[in-house]
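Q: Here's a chain of 371 amino acids. Please give me its 3D structure as tokens.
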Amino acid sequence: MRKKIRLSRAAKTDYATYLGVILAFAIVSTLMGEGMLSRSFTGQLVPICCYIVMAVSLNLTVGILGELSLGHAGFMSVGAFSGIVAAMSLQSAIPSEALRLAIAIVVGAAFAAVAGFIVGVPVLRLRGDYLAIVTLAFGEIIKELINCLIIGYDENGLHIIFNAGGTKTVTDLGLTENGTAIIKGAQGATGTETLSSFTAGFILIMLTLIIVLNLVRSRSGRAIMALRDNRIAAESVGINVTKYKLMAFVTSAALAGAAGALYGLNLSNLTAAKFNFNTSILILVFVVLGGLGNIWGSIVAATVLTILPEALRGFDDYRMLVYAVVLILVMLATNNAQLKAMFSKPLRSIRELASRTSSRPQKGVAASGKD
């Protein structure tokens, strides 16, 4: 008799998340192939993928670790500009666009992880509002540092100038005739070759989900959640606070850097001003609206709230007002106990029906047991 494999509720949720993302990718790809999607919506697909990765990665810090970070856009900017530099400087060495994009994403994730480690070691000693203020300051510092960078590439390699005084220009790089200026200070990265695609975004989302969900379900993930629930109790049983906080923070930063690289290589022109305080708040809204610690909720919230402003363009001047009203109504609805109970009843009945069906013995098996 074959043995039945029983999946835990968490495993079922994880597999449902993977399956939902795969089905969404298949449906959207089919619609794109049939030409049924508008040009504006098609142009939003890569940013939607980037924001989903950003929301899931921030949920690891805010929802799973339980620490409020307002500097997530800073890690995204580190990944974006380091990824652009890597992709542009490898143009002649690696003709394959897909391979250059993959290298750029890895480079962006690595640089953002290093930045996360440097910031995390001193900052994670703080908690609550103090941590939020320091991470917010980090995001603003990163933005100003990138505004001071002038980077170019030629046969002799990379040329980097830190233009703190604002007196130097691209000509001070000393590039040869075949050289290219990649980052031009406050002008940002201009003339970037766009390499990003919806398929690359889908792959990055799947990798992010695999990393985050496996971390959360692991022993390390349970230690991280123990720190969130009761730090003193966690310390008393020997959990290393600094180690597990850094693990979650650096992983979150690396994934934000990967999303930043994908985002940066989707635009021909990009400035550091794009990754300001408002971007960090927007990503935090995705996480809060989807539910703290709820990965599937972050995916849905990031998708809906990225599409919504474009869908409301028919309202002209009242577009953002309607957007704000929708946000308020959704937050009120998700915190309403009666609405939650109304939606949970049909889901509970479906689960009970499925469990009864799976637990019912087959006739052939019962007959063989009697013999």
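Q: Can you summarize the key feature?
A: DSSP finds 14 helices and three strands in the chain.
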